[in-house]
Fold PP2C family protein-serine/threonine phosphatase.
Amino acid sequence: MASLAFALETHPGLKRPKNEDAVGHALTPWGGVFVVADGMGGHRTGEVAARLAVETLLAHLKAQEPSPKALLEAFEQANARIYQEAQRPENRGMGTTATCLVLDLPYALIAHVGDSRAYLLRQGELTLLTEDHSWVAERVRQGLLSPEEAKTHRWRNVITNALGSFPQARVDLLGLKLSPGDVFLLCSDGLSGVLEDRTLREVLKNFPPEEAAKRLVALANEWGGPDNISAIVVRVPEELPQGARPYALPLEAAQGAPVRLKLGEEPEALPTQVLEPPKRPRVNWRDALLIALWVLVVGYILLGYFGRP
């Protein structure tokens, strides 16, 4: 995959004694797998959780052909492994974020837990693909906090979803068809929480992946480096292969728009067309008639009672 350019960088930052982030990648016949994880739960346990997440995801995903089902299963395995380790008394509170990009050229699949992020730079425009699983991000989506307030809120580092925190993982899945020259950025909140989107866009637009990743980490440190910093930059080839895939994607994703995937009991059976609006529930006229009669009888009784002299 000579035309697939990428770079991975991670740094402890300037305020943390140890790096609890982890990054990893594996090249595959169909493209590649890239993972960033941000551990939590203490210096030792956070580091272990992030490393377990990256190791488990890469081991599972590079061993089989890509699909939304395989990606979800990989996250479930990582969650189970970290959750089991977290049951030990010395590992209480252990967990990690994880954002994973699977390139199945000419498609991309993304899975996400926590507040690490995935961005897409396409034709000079930067798009945030993931939604943060954090207390402040949820309040912003509810309209209770502004984005500016969220940046300085004292609970901005409280995440609401992490691998290893619960027996079952809650994973966001996305899919899209790639365009030539697309650039992906995966990063921990030590980068996205410090640098503005316009800075990310300018660096990704003007530098190749290796230099872009180094510059982004350096800029985060110049702005104080308050947390561990990780960045993975991936530029897809200008010439993309064509062909069908054994899995289906929604029509919008097949046309190039990022689309959230909702997998049920049959993860491979994803819709290939825009979903029809849900049908309106059928009215049960028998129940409606009984309710109307009951209201009429009660009204007649009350009218007779209050109508007495």
In short: DSSP finds nine helices and twelve strands in the chain. Residues 135 and 160 are 6 Å apart (CA to CA).
